[in-house]
Amino acid sequence: MEELQIKKSTETYDVVVVGSGAGGGMAGYVLANAGVKVLMLEAGAYFDPKTDSHQLKWAWESARRGAGTTRPFGDFDAAYGGWELEGEPYTQKDGTEFAWFRARMLGGRTNHWGRISLRMGPEDFKPKDGLTDPWPITYDELKPYYDKVDRMIGIYGTVENIESEPDGIFLPPPKPRLNELFIKQGATKAGVKVITGRGSVLTEALPNNKDRGACFYCGQCGRSCKVYGDFSASSCLVIPAVKTGNLKVITNAMVREVITNKDGVATGVSYVNKLDLQEYQVNAKTVILGASAGESARILLNSKSAAHPGGLANSSGVVGKYLHDSTGSGAGGFLPQLMDRKRYNEDGVGSVHIYSPWWLDNKKLNFPRGYHIEYGGGMHMPSYGFGGGIQDMNGAVPGRDGKKKDGGGYGAGLKDDYRRFYGTQVGMAGRGTAIARADNYCEIDPNGVVDKYGIPVLRFNYKWTNDEINQAKHMQETFEEILHNMGAIYGTMQGKDTNYGLEAPGKIIHEVGTVRMGDDPKKSALNKWCQAHDCKNLFVVDAAPFVQQGDKNATWTILALSMRTAEYILQERKKLNV
Amino acid sequence: MNRRESLKAIGLGTLSTGLIFGCKPSDKKAPETADGKTGAVPGREAYEVEREDKLKAEKFFDDHEMATITVLADIIIPKDAHSGSASDAKVPEFIEFIVKDIPSHKLPMRGGLKWLDMQCLNRYGNTFIKCSSSQKTEMLDQIAYPNKAKAEMAQGVAFFNRMRDLTASGFWSSEMGTKDIGYAGNSPNKWMGVPADVLKQYGMENVKI
């Protein structure tokens, strides 16, 4: 083995960006396009959807027929990574459970995400119930950036004039599928509003963009798109930023810490090259962390120095605290009226065609805030798991001869049943607001656990409270009513024994809040520009700065915030402040 | 790029079919990487490729087990007027792979096959595959219908549910099964919504989102 030494670069970049996902990618894109010399460090491999996507492969081209053995969302899913990574553990405090999803690749988790692109609303930023801290910015301050993101990246949807669900600048939406029309009917009867989905998929060519193709409706956004027809940070931000000549990417660069000088000013970062396992240091005038809510907190907490004894940007002690993921609970069944349905291509887009924004008033409920519902179902490509549990379905409805039979079986009759049930299934999943709490946090594991690079790992402490459990109960009751109204056949709903199907925190992969913004440096790590109170040339641009997430998926807000921060950095550079 | 241009860019605009993605050389170079080399299989991590090669080189089921799986799979999904049998679609080979890939299948499958043989030895003096056709049917009828199976058949019911599910996974995800089930997607198109005749069939003409 080569003798271990720290390889110090003599070059000084204007900016080093840690992470290449939505936050890091957007910051790098804005800065590089403005002529700033940017170095981007990505902990995973290079990934370009054009060459690396598994789009349009058939299930039989996978030995495991698309099963999620090595990739949690299936063999063709784009994510390199998952909730468990070899050699990169994390620990839990007091038997609590937090599942930490990491995608180690250019573009991070934006390569496989659901492309559901929702803005947070005015009350999400400035809540009126007093339960959580207000953001230091309003919706109106972020709106121009949401607008710019809409135009730059592209999003479909419909103008609905719902105050808590602000409209954007929309491309035409995909039409609903058959199952979704049944859902609309059933939900409406249950008093649940259903509107057109909002997704970052180019249902039409994006004006003034020659690099990205329009969607051709394979419904496989989760695999990432070879024609860049949907939003991935790799295809839409980082690769175009590299083309400017102002941004350089180093992949397989796992950042250990931010380096500061004796005055506490950031001077660069150190990282381990995951392939040669050597240590490197790079210099930059400004450091931007976009490594993910968990990783950015970890890097800051590991960046201890005489000037920053509790970790960088952490004189308030809040770094790692207020960790929160969306709540999630789901249900499903099948529609007997859709048996023997006509076959046609209904792949559509790979994001949601319809959804239900939160529709109730909390004053009458036993939990705060709310949730939205995402829906699915239809005639998908058969893959691993197809036809599973048929014994619970084929005994529930009459056969072709009009007579009921015993569930299960074998032979020609069973084979025919699989055909009859094809495309009858419907599913729905709630995604709700979890309250940001100081006692849900990540910290550096106090027992000295390190990863295979010798970097101290995170320990999580996260408990749901009755607020989230009651919300999940409400989801299950709503789902049952919708399924019932649709005439669906479904099993027993999730009950108290499973916390009403409430997923473990981290499972929804919307974790945010670990390096929160705020006006008071004693209670927050970052100011309203996502700039560290304690270190003026350090910024955080992922989901860590979120004060409190609404029920809306985080990505569109990450993009808007990161763009805003990058533009602020450009202004400050002009004033020679950073 | 509009849809036509984007399909052309990936080789699907002018040619009917069969153009494989990834053959078209990338028009730009990947930026410098710390390793300076690219993976052998596009879109796959090296560990995935190594793991799969290793699994394919291993053998889990012995010849008797594979023969039993083949007989069972073809009883579950036989050849009919529309398509071939489970073994025609190479379902037994799929099951051999998937139990290695998802090891939680290994013990229940091996133990379930053994349970079945022991039942048949006690009842008919033969292992399952050596039983007559009517004996096989009589045996499977004890375990293929969970709601009417006797309590002492619980192990057989659990095994047969798993065997049925694995057979369905392997068959319907094969090229033969996908064609049979009538999946019409996975090809570039413009989604225009539910066809008019289908809307009419379900009385959904006036349902708007």
Topology:
The complex is a heterodimer of chains A (578) and B (209).
Chain A: E1 6-18, H1 22-33, E2 38-41, H2 49-52, E3 81-82, E4 91-92, E5 102-103, H3 122-125, H4 139-153, H5 178-189, E6 195-196, H6 233-243, E7 247-250, E8 253-260, E9 266-273, E10 279-289, H7 293-302, E11 327-334, E12 354-356, E13 371-377, H8 412-421, E14 425-432, E15 441-444, E16 458-461, H9 466-486, E17 531-532, E18 535-540, H10 555-574
Parallel strand pairs in A: 1-2, 1-10, 2-7, 4-16, 10-18
Antiparallel strand pairs in A: 3-5, 6-12, 8-9, 9-10, 11-14, 12-13, 13-14, 15-16, 17-18
Helix pairs in contact in A: 1-6, 1-10, 4-10, 5-9
Chain B: H1 3-9, H2 46-57, H3 63-76, H4 91-101, H5 106-124, H6 133-143, H7 154-172, H8 175-181, H9 196-201
Helix pairs in contact in B: 3-4, 3-7, 4-7, 5-7
Protein model, in words:
The complex is a heterodimer of chains A (578) and B (209). Chain A has ten helices and 18 strands. Chain A has 578 residues and is α/β, with parallel strands linked by helices. In chain A, β1, α1 and β2 form a beta-alpha-beta unit. Chain B has a domain of 123 residues. In chain B, α3 packs across α4 and α5 packs across α7. Chain B is extended and about 70 Å long. About 12% of the residues of chain B have low confidence. At the A-B interface, α2, α5, β6, α6 and β7 of A face α1, α2, α4, α7 and α8 of B.
Give the assembly state of these chains. heterodimer
Low-confidence stretches of chain B: 13-33, 35-39
Which bin fits the share of residues in helices of chain A? 10-25%
Shape of chain A: globular
Shape of chain B: extended
- Global mean pLDDT of chain B: 88
Radius of gyration of chain A: 24 Å
Q: How many helix segments of chain A?
A: 10
Pfam families (chain B): Gluconate_2-dh3
Region (Disordered) (chain B): 24-44
Biased composition (Basic and acidic residues) (chain B): 25-35
Protein name (chain B): Gluconate 2-dehydrogenase subunit 3 family protein
